[in-house]
Amino acid sequence: MTEYRTLGRTGVKVSPLALGTMMFGPRGNPDHDDSIRIIHHALDSGINFVDTADVYSAGESEVIVGKALAGGRRDDVVLATKFHGSLGDDPNERGNSRRWIIREVENSLRRLGTDWIDLYQVHRPEPDTDFDETLGALSDLVHQGKIRYIGTSTFEPSSIVEGQWLAERRGRERVVTEQPPYSLLARGIEREVLPVAQRYGLGVLSWSPLAGGWLSGRYRTGAEQPASSRTARQAARFDIGAPENAAKLAAADALARLAEDAGLTLVQLALGFVLEHPAVTSAIIGPRTFEQLDSQLGADKVRLSRDVLDRIDEIVPPGTNLSARDAGYVPPALTEPALRRRTA
Predict the structure, then answer these.
(1) Are 132 and 162 in contact (CB under 8 A)?
(2) What's the CA gap between 314 and 318, in Å, rounded?
(3) C-alpha distances out from residue 193 to 157, 158, 190, 201, 260, Å
(4) Once rounded to an integer, what is the mean pLDDT over residues 219-248?
(5) I need a surface site. Which of 182, 231, 291, 316 has the fewest CB within 10 A?
(6) Per residue, what are the HEC states of the chain?
């Protein structure tokens, strides 16, 4: 029996495991019928929270989700999607502007085959766009009934606080969720993001709880490193020759041995750890196959002992990201030298 959790302070009840759909479509599983069967299996297993995004396979993931929810299943699902990423050559076919939001929400509604989106999320920050413009457009969509709630993804703590301030001072609808990266190998958000989310009552939906596959159990010291479409696309994140990836391999191996000692799979340990944090509402799983989904179902029933949690802290200290790439977002102030230097 699934024990549902409250999404922030909204009163909406969601499953601790949310089904992420990034791997449905050409980027992962191109078979629509197979992807739909996986979605139905997840729903039949108690998951009622589905998360997608307009950029996943250039909208095809949303189309697949829409097909899966047709025929009466839509009302039983808390449906979340995201906007921000580029969807064309036009420089205005992306971003967080009112112009793009008002246009793109209609595209997502059409692809999803629904009249409303439960949670519409800003996929990434955009410092050049006034956050108040973004919240103003999203507030209008709430008032029009096209979306129910507003969320953010991979925002810095200061931006999370800014969103709350804007809602209070300028009468905008409040951001009610944050979707950050969080896993046994990427614990950086424990420093500020999670405490800030708790302070303001935001629901937290962690993405990449298996650290992009590092915590699938396939990465072990001395074993041949597995090949996948993800490693081909993001070679730098999986190059064992890089010091940060060597550290991740060593940690993944130690965590796998800890899981074995605890009578768990590494997948169960990884998901159980994320769901153990009191700030986290749901962990987003992103299976490509039935087998991957089945290996993750039931992980919300796992309870980790104090001894196991203490040992995890020894392997990867609290608040630590073993690789800077796993933060998900790097502020322009760190990537653009001109923002750090006075002009002559």
Answers:
(1) no
(2) 9
(3) 5, 9, 6, 12, 31
(4) 77
(5) 291
(6) CCCCEECCCCCCEECCEEEECCCECCCCECCHHHHHHHHHHHHHCCCCEEECCCCHHHHHHHHHHHHHHCCCCHHHCEEEEEECCCCCCCCCCCCCCHHHHHHHHHHHHHHHCCCCEEEEEECCCCCCCCHHHHHHHHHHHHHHCCEEEEEEECCCHHHHHHHHHHHHHHCCCCEEEEECECECCECHHHCCHHHHHHHHCCEEEEECCCHHHCCCCCCCCCCCCCCCHHHHHCHHHHCCCCHHHHHHHHHHHHHHHHHHHCCCCHHHHHHHHHHHCCCEEEEEECCCCHHHHHHHCCHHHCCCCHHHHHHHHHHCCCCCECCHHHHCCCCHHHHCHHHHCCCC
Rounded CA separation 220/99 (Å): 48
Q: Which residue in this structure is represented by tokens 């076919």?
A: 93
Query: Is 56 tagged catalytic?
Result: yes
Distance CA 161, CA 247 (A): 33
Count the residues in the chain: 344
User: Residue 124 in contact with residue 84, Cβ under 8 Å?
Assistant: yes
The string of pLDDT tens digits covering residues 234-281 is 677 778 888 999 999 999 999 999 999 999 999 999 999 999 999 999
Nearest Cα to 236, choosing from 155, 152, 324, 163? 324
Q: Are strands 147-153 and 13-14 parallel, antiparallel or unpaired?
A: unpaired
Among 56, 120, 149, 219, the one annotated catalytic: 56
Indicate whether this model's pTM tops 0.70: yes
Question: What are the backbone dihedrals phi and psi of residue 179, each rounded to the nearest 5 degrees, phi first?
Answer: -120, 95
- Look up residue 108 and give its two tokens: 């997502």
Per domain, the residue ranges of the chain are 5-335
